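hiii, so i know i said id send this last week but things got crazy w the move. better late than never?? heres the sequnce for the chain we talked about at the cafe, plus the structure i predicted for it. fair warning i was half asleep when i ran it
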Amino acid sequence: MAGLCEGGNEPPGSLKASKRKSLTASGGGDLQPCVVHPCNLQRNLYLSFDYCHIIKNIRSQFLDHDMADKEGTISSKFIKEIYRIQKDLAVKPFRFLTRKHVEPSSFEKMNVLYAVQTFSLEVTSTLDYMKENHLRLTSRVNFSEAGPTIRFMKNVYKFFTVHDISDKTQHLRRSNPDSMMFYSAADDRLRWLKDDFCDYINELQTESKTRNLKGLTKETHGALILTAESTASCIVHLLQNGFFYVLTRAFSGDPVEAMFSAIRMGGGWNDMTDSRTAQNAINRILKSGLLISAPDANIAHEERSEMTGKGLSREENNYCDISSQTTVILPQHISVLLESIYEPCMPVFINLGTASQALVCGYLVRVIEEKTSCSSCANDVSIPPTAAPLMGLIHKLDKGGLRYPKPDFVSLIITLQKFVEGALPYCMKSAHLLQTITNYVLPTLEQCDILKCSNEKSH
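okay and structure toks below
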């Protein structure tokens, strides 16, 4: 497969005239997904644009202007509204959504990770939750109209997912069947790529033109169709000619960019690397056998977190002795918040913040299951899976492993959050903030009926 990506400062998905002319000559005047190899007439050459550059370009156009499909208008205003809502939330539905995702600079538009996260399952699940509960939630936009946007984002994310399969167990780690390696020419994803996805993109262009909207650019539209058809055809060809399975990340041009990032990093992060510095960096790579992309490179990879420096552990940082803590006196109106834990739990008001807190409480239930051998302890704070409004965000994200907390447990955690937010201004001067807050909260929690085991009172 020959990867085609942008040249110079041209927008992603565009081709220089000279390169297009040489490639279209083999396709009878049009850029075809499969052409005869110019040096070997017995072989086929599959042409494809780099899917990483395509998704960056789609994200940029999605944020720039509205589009449409047969179901309605596709708009980025819903993501921008979620960003506005969750900015002031202590517990967010997803942590990664920042200004760089919804209002990126020219340089930030080149980051693949930001583009993929914009279309990720967490974002579409939150949009779907807001759409289903729009009558209960207050916002500046009408989320009941978010259906076409959710459909568009899911299709784009699936397109990226089936092109980004890196190993044979990726689908197990991510609990996503779309990340499974291709091992059969009859795979439904191949039909989806070649037929369903291409039909959807053509529909998007037609409907956008009908409604006087821009839609995708001609270059991006052509790149999507060409890449989808080429990938599907190439996978079928490989599987029918001796390959046991296909990992589509090998089709990406990111390894080349990783090489460039390593050379740039070897030159001291110099954007104007000279030939001698580049040669030294290449020689070091050849001698050491190590090729590590820069943490701020415009490629997405799993090892990024491993490259960042780790902070000192508590032992290395001479963590303080608990007995040396200085007592902090809290005002009465703050202490009352903590004492309200003993009162009967009030019904939880449904909004995006409380749904996010329920998601975190589900994680706490999972921690209780892992840290204790008593099944009753976890059962006392959890409920069976449900699509109730408070648990709606968990239900949308659940692939089979998430936990559903009891509403009383969620109410307790919300009360604790209010207490911590109120107490923090009075504890900021404490040398050991976390331990100070813990000293206040722990005695009260130990007497809370919600957290007492129904079978063993000592738990």
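btw Residues 5-16, 300-325 have pLDDT under 50 and may be disordered. thought thatd interest u
miss u guys!!
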